[in-house]
Write a structure and sequence with these properties.
Organism (chains A, B): Winogradskyella endarachnes
Order of helices and strands of chain A: HHHHHHHHHHEEEHH
Catalytic activity (chains A, B): Endonucleolytic cleavage to 5'-phosphomonoester
Subcellular location (chains A, B): Cytoplasm
Radius of gyration of chain A: 21 Å
Largest sheet of chain A: 3 strands, antiparallel
CATH architecture of the largest domain in chain A: Orthogonal Bundle
Distance between the termini of chain A: 62 Å
Subunit structure (chains A, B): Homodimer.
Shape of chain A: globular
Number of domains of chain A: 2
Oligomer: homodimer
Domain DRBM (chains A, B): 172-240
Amino acid sequence: MSFIRNILNSRSQGDGNFFLQLKDILGFKPKAKSFYIKAFTHRSMNLKDELGNAINYERLEFVGDAMLSSVIAAYLFDKVPHGDEGYLTKMRSKVVSREHLNKLGQELNLIDLVQSRIPTSNFGDNIHGNLFEALVGAIYLDKGYNTCEKFIFKRVINPHVDIEMLEGKVISYKSLLIEWCQKEKNTFNYEVYEDTGNDELKHFSVKLSINDKVVSKARATSKKKAEEKASKRAFFAFQNQISKLQ
Amino acid sequence: MSFIRNILNSRSQGDGNFFLQLKDILGFKPKAKSFYIKAFTHRSMNLKDELGNAINYERLEFVGDAMLSSVIAAYLFDKVPHGDEGYLTKMRSKVVSREHLNKLGQELNLIDLVQSRIPTSNFGDNIHGNLFEALVGAIYLDKGYNTCEKFIFKRVINPHVDIEMLEGKVISYKSLLIEWCQKEKNTFNYEVYEDTGNDELKHFSVKLSINDKVVSKARATSKKKAEEKASKRAFFAFQNQISKLQ
């Protein structure tokens, strides 16, 4: 334990912001800090505990991957009552695809927190997803299943999982909305502007007006995403009217 | 809901023992009974809910499989600190192998609880494991992760998961014990007798004596298993002495 404490201290001194940044990402204060230290330690650091076991995030990925699979399995079981086992498995693999996990890790800028002897610019894309899985593993081991489930809802399911989209029923809410406007002879306008706010990353904001009245707003890291998000919000607001279209 | 209630009633009338038998297997009283009804309904029953969705255990297998994976992942992470991600994955697949899940389902006689239009004798071996997975899924949905974890510890990990065995370090406790006895010039004797007790299945009991003193007892469904179990118990009792052997 004193060994872990030493790493923890060196980490805290070397990077005073680590636990502050982490708290922002997690939405709660980490308790068993050593799990999070591990979750952001790359194997190139060559750290070992007193028994000679490697300290890095790779084993935590195994736990995080399992927790993501479970939480998403239970969610899909509930939300897709018509899907059989094979269909649910396919839907889940879309949600936890390597590409999607990489995006999730990238969005949270997890790579900024990594301790590594190799410059992070040398890593491929997969490190983002691996760090995301390891973080989920650390949350489970620190706080248990329920907190881990909440985190997965907050960071994966609520912002990114759209059952209609996953089922391929809706490819784009924007096209659906435009189709409806044209049919109903409504005018529409997407007003897009750059809106970086307090973020380091460039963001775009969109105001969507129908018949010259603003009906929804959204903000995202690309114009396309912001328009899609605003369209989706409008779609759900007008759902009853739009569903008659289909 | 009234539909589910109807199935539930028909089940309860047709098979008054169902929930009693289930309570024995679970170790607690089921609350949301409809999940367990589903977990023991074969697709040949052709049941559908009011929305036309199939009622059978297949979707529950998806949830149960995920929960088994998670609980066992967290367990192995803790118990095998030297194993990397790949090693842990391999160990887990031994625990949740089709063959092992089939044995677990068979041990609990889950097939006796199934409602099916096809005679259960026509099913292959996999139905045992499928029912076990579905039952785990039902427990999760009824009672949440912690109860589900407890059930997996009680029925899978505690009686069947032996890290030393999984790692291939110990192939047989019986041979280890005999080796030790021979080296230490101790006499040993396995006294085996049939002991069916209240079970329908044939069982065997073993008394293991070393130097004419009974050191352990065990009971299992085969002679070999009972001897192995008794040897393991003796092994852990004599661990300090035996470890000098190795």
